[in-house]
TrEMBL record:
It comes from Streptomyces ramulosus. The keyword Ribosomal protein does not apply. Keywords: Cytoplasm, NAD, Oxidoreductase, Phosphoprotein. Homodimer. This is L-gulonate 3-dehydrogenase. Coiled coil: none annotated. Residues 9-186 form the 3-hydroxyacyl-CoA dehydrogenase NAD binding domain. Belongs to the 3-hydroxyacyl-CoA dehydrogenase family. Its EC number is 1.1.1.45. It holds the Pfam family 3HCDH. It is an enzyme of class 1 (oxidoreductase).
Length: 333
């Protein structure tokens, strides 16, 4: 049994995100406590009972039976949550994105939780550096950004500050890996990794509709049939190396001249070009490639493409039709 399997988990906040995180742990066969912090009395309120019922119903719908003891969900109010926090190893804060609410709840969690406990805020708005100032010991504070729906999406983005104890990060990533999630670690920056990328893509897609480049349906089909599958096999930096950094370099120069500075390549792309670090063709780019390993690497990735596209083909053919676009375009003037 690994260390992560012994860790006690408390989720503070019983809304949609808190329920989704609880479901992720239960689906992995792990006990979890879900604390509704809006109430102060000892009695389980109707809201708490409803939250418990919702999570258990969703668990029954999504999770195949696992042999052995069924995982236990404990739902409690604020008055009884302190006892659970005192025994917790990992606390996920999942209250609304309002700074004063975060301040109040994190201060309370910091006082109630054991000194060893990791405090992981699920915020998508506030930087970990700011939240660390709201507790006495900022070394145990991280952001753990779960993508919705939390019970289904594998990725959890962990943002750490310079004050964060590396051991706490390791403990959290180990726990998340243990329940089948894919944790990645980034610095204290607005937008983490995925939101920062997806905002650019979504805005550019909306801009193409606005400019009359293509219909919303055709842009979405292009992403579902091409852009999306490709980047689910090769990450964007790996794809630069695969196709060649020189391709991106020249494409960026052309598009920046035609469409604006938002397409200008960052300095690292130009530096890689100047240093002949163009990816597979040079044996180095954002990654290093031993020449003897390249054929097997290419073949492996191509097999992943083939398998993915076989699965996607039937889904695309059977997919629901796109909804009609609004009859009148939005007024931008």
């Amino acid at each position: 049994m690994t260390e992560s399997e012994h860790l006690r988990v408390v989720i503070v906040g019983a809304g949609r995100m808190g329920q989704g995180i609880a479901l992720a742990f239960l689906a992995a066969g792990r006990d979890v406590t879900l604390a509704d912090v809006k109430e102060t009395d000892e009695d389980r309120t109707g809201y708490q009972r409803a939250a418990e019922r919702t999570v258990l119903d969703r668990l029954a719908e999504r999770r195949a039976p696992v042999p052995g003891r069924a995982p236990r969900l404990t739902v409690c109010g604020r008055a009884t949550a302190a006892a659970h926090l005192a025994r917790a190893d990992v606390v996920f804060e999942a209250v609304p994105e309002v700074l004063e609410i975060k301040r109040s709840v994190l201060s309370w969690v910091d006082a109630a939780a054991a000194d060893r406990a990791v405090i992981a805020s699920t915020t998508s708005t506030f930087l970990v550096t700011d939240l660390a100032e709201l507790v006495g010991d900022g070394s145990r504070v991280v952001n753990a950004h779960w993508l919705n729906p939390a019970e289904l999406m594998p990725l959890v983005e962990i943002s750490r500050s310079e004050r964060t104890d590396p051991g706490q990060v390791s403990r959290l990533t180990g726990l998340l890996t243990e329940i089948g999630k894919v944790p990645v670690v980034c610095g204290p920056t607005a937008g983490y990794i995925v939101p920062r990328l997806q905002v650019l893509v979504m805005n550019e897609a909306a801009r193409m509709v606005e400019e009359g480049v293509a219909s919303a349906a055709d842009i979405d089909r292009a992403v579902r049939a091409g852009f999306g599958p490709r980047f689910s096999v090769l990450g964007p930096l790996e794809f630069i190396d695969w196709g060649g950094g020189d391709t991106l370099y020249y494409a960026s120069r052309y598009l920046a001249a035609e469409l604006g500075d938002r397409f200008r390549a960052p300095a690292v792309v130009e530096e890689n070009m100047a240093d002949r670090r163009r990816g597979l063709q040079d044996g180095a780019g954002f990654y290093r490639y031993a020449p003897e390993d390249v054929p097997a690497y290419r073949a492996g990735r191509e097999r992943e493409f083939e398998e993915l596209l076989r699965l996607r083909e039937s889904a695309l053919r059977a997919g629901a039709p796109f909804p009609e676009r609004p009859a009148a375009p939005p007024d931008h003037g």
